[in-house]
Specification:
By secondary structure, this protein is mostly helical. It is built from nine helices and no strands. It starts with 6 loop residues before the first helix and ends with a helix. The N terminus is likely disordered.
């Protein structure tokens, strides 16, 4: 069950449900009630989309994941008292939504004998070696437990501090330090990463 975001759509879909008061709507009645929410999305969408892409393998799935997290944020917009915590709120919504998807997903992807070759990227170093290292790193990261994987992604792919990572995940800074340390030790010992170094 999803929470409707559009006032007119929710009124049409559920006649017994009360619509939002007209004071929250713009004069035309069509625009969302939170102009600051729209400004927030415009300003932060590239950064948040990068986080979503770190959590999924498919760019289209990342966009869907971000839209779901932003819809949840829109619904809770009035309850968020500290505007400085918006990024943390959205990142938490991304992680929770992705975790829910993992738990209830159907197997609709099938392995094949050969993977298609990626398009070569112009650059000084060998694209094949760079792709091999990238693939090996992601395979090694996916072997980590979910909590350690989330911490590694937030710390090193999102470049968050230990304190910011702890705030997003709702744990202590010490927990982040110890979990990231254990995760890095596992990555150093991964035999597949040793072959591509």
């Amino acid at each position: 069950m999803t929470t409707p975001v559009c006032t007119s759509a929710s009124a049409a879909a559920a006649p017994g449900r009360q619509a939002l008061p007209h004071s929250r709507l713009r004069p035309s009645g069509e625009a969302p009630a939170y102009p600051t929410f729209a400004a927030y999305v415009r300003a932060r969408q590239p950064v948040l989309l990068r986080t979503a892409r770190s959590l999924t393998a498919n760019p289209s799935d990342a966009e869907d994941l971000l839209q779901t997290a932003l819809a949840k944020t829109y619904v809770a917009w009035e309850r968020i008292e500290d505007q400085r915590a918006l990024d943390g709120y959205v990142r938490r919504a991304l992680l929770n939504t992705r975790t829910s998807q993992w738990r209830k997903r159907k197997v609709d992807e099938f392995s094949c004998e050969e993977l298609p070759e990626p398009e070569p990227v112009p650059g000084d170093d060998d694209p094949a070696e760079r792709q091999a290292l990238h693939d090996a790193m992601w395979r090694a990261i996916t072997k980590l437990p979910a909590r350690q994987r989330a911490m590694v992604v937030l710390r090193y792919y999102e470049d968050l501090s230990e304190a910011q990572t702890a705030e997003v995940l709702g744990v202590s800074v010490g927990t982040v330090k110890s979990a990231v340390s254990r995760a890095l030790a596992k990555l150093r010992e991964d035999p597949e990463l040793g072959l591509v170094r």
